[in-house]
Amino acid sequence: MTNMLKNAKAAKFDISLLDTNKKNELLLAMAESLIKNADKILAANDIDIKNATGKISDVMIDRLKLTAERIDGMSQGIRDVAALPDPVGRIFDERTRKDGLNIKKMSVPFGVVAIIYESRPNVTSDAAALCIKSGNVCILRGGKEAFCSANAIVDALKEGIKSFGVNDNIINLVKDTSRDSATALMTADGYVDLLIPRGGAGLINAVVKNATVPCIQTGTGICHIYIDETADLEMAVKIIENAKLSRPSVCNSEEVLLVNEKIADKFLPLVKTALVDKRTKNNLIPCELRLCEKSAKIIDGKAAEETDFDTEFLDYILAVKCVGDVYEAVEHINAHSTGHSEAIITNDKTAADYFVGRIDSAAVYVNASTRFTDGGEFGLGCEMGISTQKLHARGPMGLSELNTYKYVISGNGNIR
Questions:
Q1: Alpha-carbon span 265 to 289, nearest angstrom
Q2: How far apart are CA 199 and CA 251, in angstroms?
Q3: How far, in Å, are 157, 162, 394 from residue 38 at the CA level?
Q4: Alpha-carbon Rg of the chain, whole angstroms?
Q5: Taking the model in full, what pTM does it have?
Q6: Distant-in-sequence, close-in-space partners of 162: CB < 8 Å, separation ≥ 6
Q7: Contact at 8 Å (CB) between 105 and 79?
Q8: Closest CA to 20 of 133, 137, 168
Q9: For 86, which DSSP code?
Q10: pLDDT tens string 315-334
Q11: Rounded distance, CA 360 to CA 94, Å?
């Protein structure tokens, strides 16, 4: 680890010499190398899947699994990053004083960005691409479940980099997946300029508690959807199906459904039909509904415990609660949310405006699924993670969020 940190710090100067065209050439070579090495990556992923089967849930297996299509998507994600404007060197502000002193506020890379993540192999290529385009060196520390996959991906990325004669220490993979290596990154003062944890609540809490290097909280998503009394119910059901069922293992999936009690008798049976009955009939995994007292009088399900409204299930489970109006919905969300993504389904502009104005989360939706909280969907190419804090980044983190700034002051013998 010590050698890796030293090599990564030294590589900061190598990547700082690369102009936009060179960085883009590297990225395109990395994207091509992923496709070229797809068979090796899939073989490594098969080992991870075999080792994890029976130890993690089916939805987490899906999160871990790679396919040829997913590798194509990873490769395209790198190409998308290459096509984006270079964030380095942008001038945020410029002024010239009366004495001729010129002051510029300019975007610059952080330097060495470390990412601790869990069982999503695509994070490996996404993070590497974003770091390189934003002028940073990256240190990747994945979870043990995805180690073989991550190792094969990094080997492919480094192959693309070496073909240009560039120092391949601009990408680094920690081979030790024990807690010791994570702690070493959290406390690598003088080496790591920014640490980003991407995973579940346990990982994020550990980083927040133990890190002595600058870090950003990302990922944990107790995402809510509130169905207002004026909502188009057919549209609302489709949004809920997408938000809960399309990929329940990700942080932007819906975990809590709030329903205005004025429409609950009509709407909740539609939800049960779509999420439970229809899926059971079609031999799909049904969604387990955990119901408050009011909703339990309308449809069948499991009685909700209080902790269910503070849980990121990452599974086919949905907590359901009836509320009196948009005011109660907002009060509930702000009390239980992790600040990730929330949505209101309504045809009442006043209710929508109140919801948007009062919800204190990184992404707030009106008549759309929370599943859009994603760097690719937001036009960022891919993402480093989704920040649920407010300093210095919030929401999907792309290239701009991997730059800080410095002041450049030019004079002509000016003294104070």
A1: 16
A2: 9
A3: 11, 18, 33
A4: 23
A5: 0.89
A6: 168
A7: no
A8: 133
A9: P
A10: 999 999 999 999 999 999 99
A11: 32
At residue 333, φ and ψ (nearest 5 deg) are -60, -45
Alpha-carbon distance of 226 to 240, in angstroms, equals 10
Rounded-to-integer distance, Cα 133 and Cα 389, Å? 24
Model confidence pLDDT, tens digit, residues 158-202:
999 998 889 999 999 999 999 899 999 999 999 999 999 988 778
- CB-neighbour burial class of residue 416 (10 A; exposed 0-12, middle 13-18, buried 19+): exposed
Q: What are phi and psi of 183, to 5 degrees?
A: -65, -35
- Distance, in Å, from the CA atom of 117 to the CA atom of 177, rounded to the nearest integer, reads 10
Q: Which helix (H) or strand (E) holds 38?
A: helix 38-52
Taking the C-alpha atoms of residue 270 and residue 273, their distance in angstroms, rounded to an integer, is: 5
φ/ψ of residue 400, rounded to 5 = -60, -35
| Cβ neighbours of 155 (radius 10 Å) | 15
Q: CA 298, CA 269: separation in Å to the nearest integer?
A: 7
Query: What is the total residue count of the chain?
Result: 416
pLDDT of 314 over the 70 cut = yes
| Long-range contacts at 295-298 (CB < 8 A, ≥ 24 apart) | 295/259, 295/264, 295/268, 295/320, 295/321, 295/322, 298/264, 298/265, 298/268, 298/269
What is the C-alpha to C-alpha distance for residues 315 and 190, in angstroms, rounded to an integer? 39
CB atoms within 10 A of CB 84: 18
pLDDT at 31: 97
In the sheet that holds 317-323, the strands lie side by side as 302-303, 288-291, 317-323, 254-260, 223-227, 341-345, 363-366
Residue 151's Cβ-side half-sphere holds a number of Cα atoms within 13 Å equal to 15
Task: Report the Cα 166 to chain-centroid distance in Å.
Answer: 29
Q: What is the pLDDT of the chain when averaged over all its residues?
A: 95
Cβ-Cβ contacts under 8 Å for 82 (sequence gap 6 or more) = 23, 24, 27, 28, 31, 129, 133
Distances (CA, A) of 89 to 28, 108, 134, 406: 22, 6, 10, 10
CA distance 363 to 360: 9
Q: Are strands 223-227 and 254-260 parallel, antiparallel or unpaired?
A: parallel
- H-only helix segments in 308-369: 326-336, 349-358
